[in-house]
Design goal:
This is Cytochrome b/b6 domain-containing protein. The protein is mainly alpha-helical.
Length: 239
């Protein structure tokens, strides 16, 4: 961080690596598609979607979800083993001295931040939490609803009347399904549904706040933070 001064000469500083930028934009695309499918699924009854149509929508939702999960898991690995601003210590709101940094920022200190400013770190931390909840709960729901990996095979075996014919169990059918065991499975998944829905609503709140924060920070710091997520470079004072 450096004090900003209009008389200072500026330089392009490489901040966001290709890996970070690829994660960011792939995550944007996946979240957009998942929200779109999710909204249609939530309102499928009002939209008159048939059972087969609902299964197709959920299948598309899950397939995009796999890409989302892989992308997020690779970001976790990068956070622990990456370099520079790929590391969690430079990204999340838990690094040493963060409280003092946030206090200074709230008092209106004019700083140029190479990575995220303190408000940005808080936003990123909450967003990663919401995304992580979506990932875990989504995988459980996929396994208990349309029997997709990684948990689908396990749950099929748990609810099967004849465990040697689990392939007969299909979404929204009762063939080879033990009614009591099926009900127990649905009870087990209930809290995951709640987590998935509420973290979904949280993301619907966070996304516009994130965009608004980027616009505000772009105007305040004038450090090209928007284009930096495309080309990797921020405009900062040379010193």
């Amino acid at each position: 961080m450096q004090n900003k001064n209009s008389s200072q000469s500026l330089a392009l500083v490489y901040v966001w690596s290709k890996k970070i930028r690829l994660f960011h934009w792939l995550n944007v695309l996946c979240v957009f598609l998942l929200i779109t499918f999710g909204l249609i699924i939530l309102n499928s009854k009002a939209l008159g979607v048939t059972s087969d149509g609902k299964v197709l929508l959920k299948t598309c939702h899950v397939l995009v979800g796999y890409i989302f999960c892989i992308n997020l898991l690779l970001r976790y690995v990068l956070g622990f083993f990456g370099t520079g601003f790929e590391k969690w210590s430079a990204t999340l709101a838990f690094n040493k001295g963060f409280a003092a940094e946030l206090k200074e920022y709230r008092q209106g200190a004019q700083k140029a931040y190479q990575g995220h400013n303190p408000a940005g770190k808080l936003m990123i931390t909450v967003m990663f939490l919401a995304l992580s909840i979506q990932m875990v709960s989504g995988l459980v729901i996929a396994g208990t609803d349309i029997y997709y990996p990684p948990f689908g095979g396990y749950f099929k075996e748990q609810i099967a009347i004849d465990s040697t014919q689990v392939e007969l169990i299909k979404p929204y059918t009762k063939e080879n399904v033990d009614t009591e065991k099926y009900k127990a499975m649905r009870d087990l998944r209930s809290p995951f549904i709640t987590m998935h829905v509420y973290s979904f609503y949280l993301l619907l709140l966070l996304i516009p706040l994130h965009i608004a924060g980027v616009i505000y920070t772009e105007r305040k710091e004038k450090s090209s933070i928007t284009s930096a997520m495309i080309n990797g470079y921020k405009t900062l004072p040379k010193d």
